[in-house]
Write a structure and sequence with these properties.
single chain, 62 residues, globular
């Protein structure tokens, strides 16, 4: 699953990125792959359990 979101903000506090990003990912999982969403919520993934979903940033230069 890949979700791309763009903003004109030059800076965002980590808490403003992590919580909404996780909520968005869970919403998409609930609609598109509910069994996987439940599995990740109940058991996590791999040996690390629940860790922050992969998030990063892209820098676009014109």
């Amino acid at each position: 699953m890949r979700i791309e979101v763009a903003t004109a903000a030059t800076e965002l506090a980590w808490a403003k990125v992590l919580a909404p990003g996780r909520s968005l990912a869970y919403d998409v999982l609930a609609r598109e792959a509910p069994a996987l969403g439940r599995q990740l919520h109940n058991q996590g993934a791999g040996p690390y359990g629940m860790v922050p979903l992969g998030q990063g940033r892209s820098v676009l230069m014109s």
